[in-house]
Amino acid sequence: MKTSYINGAFISAGNNVLENKNPSDINDVVDRFSRVGRTETEQAVEAAAAAAPAWGTSNPQERFDALDFIGSEILNRREELGALLSREEGKTLPEGIGEVTRAGYLFKFFAGEAVRIGGERLESVRKGATVDVTREPVGVVGIITPWNFPIAIPSWKIAPALCYGNCVVFKPAELVPSSAWALAEIISRSGLPDGVFNMVIGRGSEVGDAIIGSDAVQAVTFTGSVNTGSMIAQRCAARMAKAQLELGGKNPLIVLDDANLEQAVDVAVQGGFYSTGQRCTASSRVIVTDGIYDDFIKLFVEKTQALRVGPALDENTQIGPVASESQLQQDLEYIDIAQQEGANLLTGGNRIEMDSDGYYLQPTVFADVNNEMRICREEVFGPVVTVSRVADYEAALAEANDTPFGLSSGICTTSLKYAEHYKRHAKAGMVMVNMPTAGVDYHVPFGGSKGSSYGPREQGRYAAEFYTRVKTAYQYAN
What we know:
With about 475 residues, the chain is an alpha/beta fold. It is built from 15 helices and 24 strands. The mean pLDDT is about 95. It comes from Halomonas stenophila.
């Protein structure tokens, strides 16, 4: 039985067992884990706090070496780890390997950043004085991650935290602990001092609550639901801790009359259905102008119906299962709600029975929707896409921005005028032109606006804004 990692050791197993089941075949148990509770989490926080002073002033080469080791091993084992990820989460094998590859490069990127942490020296307006502006670690960082990217999201939080000299207490999602454990096992052999990195596997009500409420945790980074994120922000603010939240999206993809039809349909299919639609950047709302609407709908439905749904590790599968029974039920409930509200179900909408007992759902397309419907305003987080018809670009822009979220936004057009205007006027943190709304490089900032994000950006050099504090130091030369 696999266990949590605290203060440099995998701790003794307890009796509270968590079974990690394969969503492609729930009779396949991927791993068994021993859950920890509040006591063990507090021990992990204490270990991190004890290690923080030394690690916070460690040599950049030491940080580089550890992060580079982690990144190299992840990349060397990408096929093995990708298969494990696909088996436990349900995304296809190519997607699983791709996610692991991204995780490896994230650690490699932040290995490089560790030896590039800079500062400024300024002349003071007071004669004879100089000013140094430097960055210092915040201390102990609590990291709470979701199930949809079991290794990439932990990596893009853990790597910068360690890079900038912080200690980590990491809680992975209970639905997908195997990838997190594999990552922790690699980290355990990277040469980090005891207590610098800790992983605790357990329930959010105990483990997550202990991390969020601890005065020794100076920053919390969380990816997950809006309601949980709002609670975390309030609790962190109450004790003056930093918070970084990524909370989802309802991302629009506009298709204009002048778009390349084949390209636009491929962009919509990839953005809406790949990774089973279980991406916060998925393009779940497609907004099509009147002149191309009929042709788009016809081809989009054809290509959606041609998608091959099946077990994640099957080489013929294009769309894997939904990650869990509860997520499948949520998807089916939204499909039912959409029909009750008057949306026109063009294809899909049903659970699929297969030889293996898994959580399979037909890729689903709704038309004749309006922006007041719940299916257009609330995040479904599954292979469900709505298509609406609008008169022109101005109407499309207004509908795209009419959402409580603002993570990613896309447009398909051959017009430079409209592409440039949309990049400036889309109310989202990330904008894609003739590309799926899902998919962001590992070295650039990730994040949104409105209800999608709170706090500094993730990834790239902008990660320093969350994982460090700025210090201004004066010196007078006698």
